[in-house]
Design goal:
With 75 residues, this protein is of the alpha+beta class. The protein has one domain: 2-Layer Sandwich (Conserved Hypothetical Protein Mth637, Chain: A). The chain has one helix and five strands, in the order E-E-E-H-E-E. The chain has a five-stranded mixed sheet with strand order 2-3-1-5-4, covered by helices on one side. A hairpin with a 5-residue loop joins strand 2 and strand 3. The relative contact order is 0.28.
Amino acid sequence: MKIYVTAKPGAKENKVEPLLDPHHVKVWVKEPPTEGKANLAIMRELAAHFHVKKSAIEQTHGFKSKQKIFTIEGL
């Protein structure tokens, strides 16, 4: 399943907010958008939100953008 993410790095807290479309979410993470730290934190938050292992999540697009696409196996 493809998940479209709007990233909000540098937030005060980590959270995932589903949007109207079930394949779109907004993810806030505390980590800064440097050296891929925010991307790893987003993967961790998505794994917790969808109750899957972190290894089941792969980022496919948007490595340096706020608009990202992740694939989640097992959903």
